[in-house]
UniProtKB/TrEMBL annotation:
Its cofactor is Mg(2+); Mn(2+). Residues 378-548, 589-737 form the RNase III domain. Its main location: nucleus. It is found in: Nucleus. It comes from the Eukaryota. Residues 236-353 form the PAZ domain. GO terms for biological process: ta-siRNA processing. One of its GO terms (cellular component) is nucleus. This is Uncharacterized protein. Pfam families: PAZ, Ribonuclease_3. Gene3D superfamilies: 3.30.160.20, paz domain, Ribonuclease III domain.
Length: 1017
């Protein structure tokens, strides 16, 4: 039976496609590749859905308590309760979510079940109104329309028309009483604060419905008299928009500005400043308004009734931020940007009767709800997959559907790596048992087609897994609570009317400019085709971790894989192997079993495992090749599982490196020699025997010397030495009736010690490339033939030197490895090593904000370095990293041509033969990317950026951007055989833009020198 014997070929059931998603043949071409982009929909989270908010009636909702605990005792947070119609899974309500705030503050959100809450129709309306007021006031707008745009300015909550809650996003988030904030058991909604906010809404409705705000603002005070708020008189009394308050009680008060709808917290009472005081100057300019009263009169048509009252210093509420990752930061490196402090008359502020800790908790809610909804999505997928006997953690499922683009502290990368091994093993085992007459080449071919990305993509889309994948970072600006109007809508322009996207060719592209991950308002988003295949592998890995091999079998069958590991087929494999037994080999087998510390029930399996194809003749028709095919996947799975479980803190890239080093044929060959297993190999090739003998002599000497690093002249281990270790693993698996634990029990001592991160040695070329990427050094490779040998020439450009090394071998890969080893040795002599730079880079991060790194983080000793660096700009005022507080001043931009003529004069000897046509985008990141491209083209070391930050107490405008920070960046570029060029860019409001300015200045200088010709895109 050959490869065309259909019943034995690995098969996949026909994809089960939903009615709305039809697959055509063209769609499958190129599926599963990184090149292809696909438009997919996003499935709604059922647990957040409901209709009760649009149907005024009594309702009973499930309550889930949220407690916030800060790691710094000086900050308190109010507890909240989530009221929702659905019953949440235990995995969701047992969540403990870390929220990363500025100044290294971490708040832990603990969610627990709080029973049920019964609400009458009137209470439901109050709670909805409270939520609409707070979320729109904090994160949106309470006023719509603008005179400048020709639309009437209206209060958003003036009536109930058109403000219906979406049925796909329906829940309530409410503060609880301070007495129950510290307890997860008790639950008491803060009705006092809610009633006060509802009263403020009713007052504003009355005012804006009669247009009194422009003619009679004192009516607000009149309306407030009907409330039960206390009234104070005398010099200590402040007249607010909805009450009178004692001057000593307003500090820390949460207030709503009735003219803007913004929510503030009161910092202080400014006794030395009133509405009659001169208006604040801005950037030293003469103000447009004479006084604060004049400002409100001219801008808002409001005539203040109590202009003599002291102004209140208030702090504007924060915009929401992504608090779910410690690595997501603002431009200035902080987790949140300080908001402006402003002065407002008390009579324009309405007290909301909420404490500041309630306001602080509101800023946490978008991130908390995003994580909870993600967990609910994972539970929904788990329920969709079914197999209730497999208790898989929703956290594992969430990790399996989360890509790196989400910028979370977890992603599917680790599970994908492990799932790849599980899939490879299951398919290998299936093919081995199902096709006893197929040789190793045929098995490998069928396995490759079964586990390829295009097949996994087909399986994943047949189950609509693409709709569950989380492929973009949480954008809190587009997050909306029920009843909140989005300030950043993204109307759908995808040409699809439904939430699902049909699997058709029209929804595919290979345009690299396509933005991935960003969803429109209907949930449509572009996704890399390979991401679907990666998610399938990650889910397979998650099910193995959570429920063992049987759980993975269940998932793979649910996906459509025809996977069967039948006991009868195992027994048949044993019977076939027993025919290989030769009694003359009894002593040989006994000795080998004693080394393995395992006794075979079917000796023929071990004999087959050590028989080389070269030993086959008319009497022997078996070899280790089929068992080696099976054992390759076994050891890959067992070692990957061991590394996955024992190194949970390392990143996926390092885990991949560990696996590659551990399952390499070279490592297996050394293990074979270490335990002297090669002497039992049955082969009939003198040439192969000679290669094995030479290799064993070299390796044995190294083992005796306990050397940690193999010398350069050690020959590569013959493949057969690694193959027999894999074939023995396959033999033990069949002999134990597919018991992976017993196989690992045999092989763990043989493979020990398994490589660890601190002992990991990367392949020379990989180590060199990674080191050069970190340091920003360009490397060039060239090849030429020398008889039957290949000569690889690697050249590495440093700031002061060009290193060139050659390697020679019959194979190009080995020749490159030799040359890379020589270059690594040259770099080490200059004080540059991978061990020094990589740990530092992983700890410090990329200071230049790009995918590769510059030489700024390593000191390379060069002669006369300080003499050749010329500082061309006199505008640098402070040392890197120094922060100063100063008043805003007029900014004098750096002149475009300042210092460049002098620079050009001094580098005329370094002009290139031909200028590089260099396109440049003027958007953020464009100048830097163009400069990096030029350096790669001309084989120059990457530039170095140094940035200086200045902070201001008042907002300043830089290049049309408002902010409290000013960044100035300088750039140093080393052109080979020339002095280092140093320039400084113009100040900007964020660090990346300032570096773009410096990069643009350098590009214009290089253009004047003739290195490039800039073309704007």
């Amino acid at each position: 039976m050959g490869a065309d014997y259909d019943p034995y070929v690995f098969s996949v059931e026909e994809p089960r496609i939903s009615d709305s998603a039809h697959v055509n043949y063209d769609y499958t071409v190129g599926a599963g590749t990184t090149k292809r982009r696909e438009l997919h929909g996003t499935i709604h989270v059922r647990g957040l859905s409901g209709t009760w908010a649009n149907e005024p009636s009594d309702i009973t909702l499930n309550a889930y308590k949220m407690k916030f605990v800060c790691d710094q005792i000086d900050k308190d947070y109010c507890g909240f309760v989530l009221l929702i119609e659905a019953t949440l899974d235990n995995d969701v309500i047992d969540q403990k979510i870390d929220l990363y705030l500025r100044k290294n503050r971490v708040v832990k959100a603990v969610v627990s079940h709080g029973g049920q809450v019964h609400l009458n129709a009137n209470q439901v309306e109050k709670l909805k109104l409270f939520q609409e007021l707070l979320f729109n006031g904090l994160f949106g707008k309470l006023f719509v329309g603008c005179k400048l745009q020709g639309t009437k300015r209206e209060f958003l909550l003036r009536d109930r028309k058109g403000l219906l809650w979406s049925s796909s996003n329906m829940y309530l988030l409410l503060p609880v009483e301070p007495s129950s904030s510290d307890s997860l058991d008790s639950l008491s909604i803060n009705w006092n604060g809610i009633d006060a906010c509802v009263l403020v809404v009713e007052i504003l409705r009355t005012v804006y419905s009669t247009n009194y705000i422009h003619s009679c603002p004192e009516c607000l005070l009149t309306c407030s008299q009907s409330s039960c708020q206390p009234t104070y008189t005398g010099s200590d009394t402040l007249h607010m928009a909805n009450k009178s308050a004692n001057v000593n009680t307003v500090k820390d008060m949460v207030v709503l500005a009735i003219h803007t709808g913004r929510i503030y917290s009161v910092l202080d009472v400014m006794h030395d400043k009133s509405a009659e005081s001169p208006f604040d100057r801005y950037k030293g300019r003469q103000p447009e308004f004479i006084s604060f009263a004049d400002y409100y009169s001219k801008k808002y048509n409001i005539e203040l009734q109590h202009p003599g009252q002291p102004l209140l210093l208030v702090k504007q509420s924060y915009q929401p931020h992504n608090l779910l990752s410690s690595t997501v930061k603002c431009e200035d490196g902080s987790m949140m940007v300080e908001r402006a402090h402003v002065h407002i008359p008390p009579e324009l502020l309405a007290d909301l009767s909420l404490s500041p800790n309630v306001l602080r908790s509101f800023y946490l809610l978008p991130s908390v709800m995003h994580r909870l909804s993600s967990m609910m999505l994972a539970c929904q997928l788990c329920e969709y997959i079914g197999h209730n006997n497999c208790q898989i953690s929703s956290e594992l499922i969430l990790e399996a559907i989360t890509t790196l683009r989400c910028c979370e502290n977890f992603s599917l990368e680790r599970l994908e790596l492990f799932g790849d091994s599980v899939l490879k093993y299951v398919v290998s085992c299936h093919l081995f048992l199902k096709n006893p007459t197929m040789h190793e080449g045929q098995l490998t071919e069928h396995r490759a087609s079964a586990v390829c990305n295009s097949m996994l993509h087909k399986l994943g889309t047949s189950r609509s897994l693409q709709e569950y994948i989380r492929d973009s970072a949480f954008d809190p600006r587009r997050w909306v609570a029920p009843g909140q109007i989005s300030l950043h809508p993204l109307p759908c322009s995808c040409g699809v009317d439904t939430f699902e996207v049909p699997l058709e060719r029209v929804h595919l592209t290979e345009d690299t400019n396509t933005v991935l991950g960003r969803a429109c308002d209907k949930g449509h988003r572009w996704m890399c085709s390979k991401t679907v295949a990666d998610c399938v592998e990650a889910l397979i890995g998650a099910y193995y971790i959570g429920g063992g091999l049987n759980a993975s079998y269940s998932l793979m069958r649910w996906l459509g894989m025809d996977i069967t590991i039948e006991p009868l087929l195992i027994q048949e494999a044993k019977r076939n192997a027993s025919l290989c037994w030769c009694h003359s080999k009894t002593d040989e087998i006994d000795i080998l079993e004693s080394k393995l510390k395992y006794r075979f029930s079917v000796k023929g399996l071990l004999l087959e495992a050590i028989t080389s194809p070269s030993h086959q003749d008319s009497r022997i028709d078996y070899s280790y090749q089929r068992l080696e095919f099976l054992g390759d996947s076994i050891l890959d799975l067992l070692i990957t599982y061991y590394l996955f479980q024992n190194h949970t803190g390392i990143d996926p890239g390092e885990l991949t490196d560990l696996r590659s080093a551990s399952v390499s044929n070279e490592n297996f060959a050394q293990t074979t020699v270490k335990h002297n297993l090669q002497c039992h190999l049955q082969l009939a090739s003198d040439a192969l025997s000679q290669q094995i003998t030479e290799y064993v002599c070299c390796i044995s000497k190294i083992f005796e010397d306990k050397a940690n690093v193999l010398p350069l002249d050690v020959p590569k281990g013959p493949k057969v030495l690694g193959d027999i270790l894999e074939s023995i693993a396959g033999a033990i698996l069949i002999d134990t009736d597919i018991d992976l634990d017993k196989v690992w029990g045999v092989f763990e001592p043989l493979l020990s010690p398994v490589v660890t991160p601190d002992k990991l040695e990367l392949p020379p070329l990989r180590e060199l490339l990674e080191l050069c990427s970190i340091l920003g050094y360009p490397i060039n490779m060239a090849y030429r033939n020398k008889g039957e040998m290949v000569v690889a020439e690697l050249s590495l450009q440093l700031e002061d030197d060009l290193l060139v090394r050659c390697g020679c071998d019959a194979h190009r890969k080995a020749a490159k490895a030799q040359a890379a080893l020589y270059l690594l040795k040259d770099l080490k002599e200059r004080g540059i090593s991978h061990a020094q730079q990589v740990p530092k880079k992983r700890k410090d991060g990329d200071s230049n904000g790009r995918s590769f790194c510059s030489a700024s983080e390593v000191k390379i000793p060069t002669l006369l370095e300080n003499d050749i660096i010329r500082t061309l700009s006199p505008f640098k005022k402070s040392v890197m990293g120094q922060t100063s507080y100063c008043e805003p001043s007029t900014i004098s931009p750096v002149e475009e041509n300042y210092g460049l003529d002098n620079l050009v004069t001094n580098v005329t000897n370094f002009r290139p033969d031909e200028s590089v046509a260099l396109p440049i985008k003027m958007e953020k990141g464009g100048p830097r990317n163009s400069l990096f491209d030029l350096c790669r083209i001309l084989q120059w070391p990457m530039p170095r950026f140094d940035s200086t930050e200045e902070k201001f107490r008042k907002q300043i405008s830089l290049n049309g951007v408002m902010g409290f920070n000013r960044y100035t960046s300088s750039i140093t570029l080393h052109v080979p055989n020339s002095p280092a060029f140093h320039l400084e860019g113009e100040p900007r409001a964020d660090k990346k833009s300032s570096r773009d300015s410096a990069a643009l200045a350098m590009l214009r200088a290089l253009e004047k020198m003739g290195f490039c010709v800039l073309t704007k895109l």
